[in-house]
Amino acid sequence: MSVVAIQWLALAACLLGAAIRLPDVVRGRGRVVFTALLLLSVAVGLSLEPIYLAVDRLLGGVNLANLAIRLCLYAVFVLLGVRMVAAFKAPRARKFIVGPLGIAVLAATVAFTVYFFFQSDLPYSDTGLTAFADQEAVEHYSEAGRLYPGYVAACLVGPALVSVVNRNARFLHRLAGAFLALGFGTVTVFAVLELFNVELAAGMIILPFSAILCVVLGLCLIWFSKRRAARSGGRSNLLAQ
Predict the structure, then answer these.
(1) Are the CB atoms for 40 and 212 separated by under 8 Å?
(2) pLDDT per residue over 216-235, tens digit each?
(3) Coil, helix or strand for 181?
(4) 15, 41 in Cβ contact below 8 A?
């Protein structure tokens, strides 16, 4: 499978994940996860060159679409982080994500991202900003963009793994936890590798988009688990609500 194919597959998965939750949203349920999937769809869509160039042209052709990707991803991790720590009943992870430290990391990440973006010289649209990679400001902008997602993902790997080994949980719930743990673990590893400037080549695309596929698949499995639980009169997980 080509790198571009993985990107399109990730977009399709995000849109499908949002679509299957739409009926519940109309009924007033599941708005947090639905919004996260919708924002993730926007971020993934903008990462695709044809969509990116078309949208950025409307925004002035100065790569504001790239800034939109970053901000959408931060919002996605805020929403999923808050919902997942509640679903997994992980008070320690909640403290790190929505406590003073988590809020400080988010605020610093947004501030650095916006600052370094406007310090960069980006005279024309370029997907991924690869044409401007030699600029120090662009390098710092890219580093800042991985800070918050990597931080939240690292906080969520443990609770997701705990759900996998919970023998009292339904099989689909445990399988979903495995995909979520794999997805968040991949995000964490990717952030660490980038922090140490490890050359990833195609892994720059494969790792993050594979992580997206795992997370979306995990969320979809939890939704299916909820449907089965509803038919049998059981309780559903908060991630399915």
Answers:
(1) yes
(2) 999 999 888 777 766 665 55
(3) helix
(4) yes
